[in-house]
Amino acid sequence: MEKIRALLFATLRSALFGARVDVEAYAALSAEEWQRLFRMSAKQGVLAIVYDVVSQLPKECQPPRQINLQWALSVEAIENRHELQRKISAILAELWFESGLQTIVMKGLAAGTYYPKPHHRECGDLDCFLVKDGSTTSDGYEVANQICEQIGAKVSRDYYKDASIRYRGLLVENHRFFLPIRGSRKMKALERHLETIAIGEGVRYVPDTKLIVPTPDFNALFLTMHGLNHFLSEGVKLRHILDWALLLKAEQNNINWHEFYEWSDKLHMTRFADALTAISVEYLGVEISNPDIHTASPYTYRVLEDTLFKSEGLFNKGYSAWKARWMLVRNKISFGWKYHKIYQKSILLELIKNGFAFLFEKNPKL
Predict the structure, then answer these.
(1) pLDDT band of 105, cuts 50, 70, 90
(2) β-strands 126-132, 170-175: how paired?
(3) Is the CB of residue 120 less than 8 Å from the CB of residue 52?
(4) C-alpha distances in Å from residue 301, one per residue of 104, 220, 263, 307
(5) Are strands 101-106 and 211-213 parallel, antiparallel or unpaired?
(6) Quick check: 71 pLDDT over 90?
């Protein structure tokens, strides 16, 4: 497995950062090893990115015909899914714009703008945050929901943080808040800060849409907190780390790192951010020239091992609400080392705090 992992990272370095590949390393792979590389790439959400290199290898170095065909069809499905998401997202953003709403897009489509081939960055739904008439608060949330209902979309408001909208095959998470703020004054403070910095001067859009890409300062804080929440509850995928690596490559000199680390220290995110950066440098070859960025971590290998071999997906699995909650608690308990070493908090106290927040702060406000 070490051989396949090394080849996976070598392939990603080539696809995303232009590193040269050792063609002979692929020629030496057995059919079983090719299948392992395929499965690991698929599990980590980087199947299309890896295929960007594999498909360009000399014919004699490519996978066996059956695996190659399976890979090509899988990549085509990823591309089709991306095109559907981009197309329907653009339609919704246009409708919202006509009603005075600006659409800020997070994660998938926004992160994809940093990739050489945005349509090969896998994503499943549209995460957005609506602001009205240039406001920096979430007053566009319910207006957007109502517009979607008027055009026949199904809107569910069951969760305090975001509404789920289903429209023409696309799942939209219309965020009332960027973050899970319930029960935490510090998270509410970060939420207010993110709402303030999400849109900056010289607004950048997802090409051919009215979907706003947030500022680099926003992305640095949001991607770290979002990734940390996943890390603590179900683990992250390599795709999350690639988002961070490509953000570093493109924006390392456009981010206020002093402010970033101030917030990271307050919210216990620094060790996680440092591990992501160290993985980006040591395994993906990202070059860091900004002296304000932490580039080393004692937890690099353990976080990477957890990402590749220990993470267990929980969300978007179709579980009932109560089963998902139980599995969330189970995961958090089994991930105790993450709380102790990375998050630097007590898992027991966090579970108690979350329980009280769930019971007594059903509908939090900033």
Answers:
(1) very high
(2) parallel
(3) yes
(4) 34, 22, 25, 10
(5) parallel
(6) yes
User: What does the pLDDT read at residue 56?
Assistant: 95
Contact 190, 179 (CB under 8 A): yes
C-alpha radius of gyration, the chain, whole number = 21
Q: Read off the pLDDT of residues 192-220 as tens digits, 9 standing for 90 and up.
A: 999 999 998 889 999 999 999 999 999 99
Beta bridge partners of 105: 128
pLDDT band for position 318 (50/70/90)?
A: low
**What's the whole-number mean pLDDT along residues 142-152?**
95
Sheet holding 162-167, edge to edge: 154-156, 162-167, 170-175, 126-132, 101-106, 211-213, 204-205
Is residue 338 scored above 70 in pLDDT?
Answer: yes
- Rounded distance, CA 177 to CA 154, Å? 20
Q: CA 149, CA 165: separation in Å to the nearest integer? A: 9
3-state secondary structure 278-338: HHHHHCCCCCCCCCCCCCCCCCHHHHHHHHHHHCCCCCCCCCCHHHHHHHHHHHHHHCHHH
The first and second tokens of residue 28, run together, are 């030496």
Is residue 148 a contact partner of residue 92, using CB atoms and an 8 Å limit?
A: yes
* Residue 288 confidence (pLDDT) above 80: yes
Return d(Cα 171, Cα 82) in angstroms, integer: 13
Structure-token pair, residue 92: 């919704």
Tokens 């493109």 belong to 250
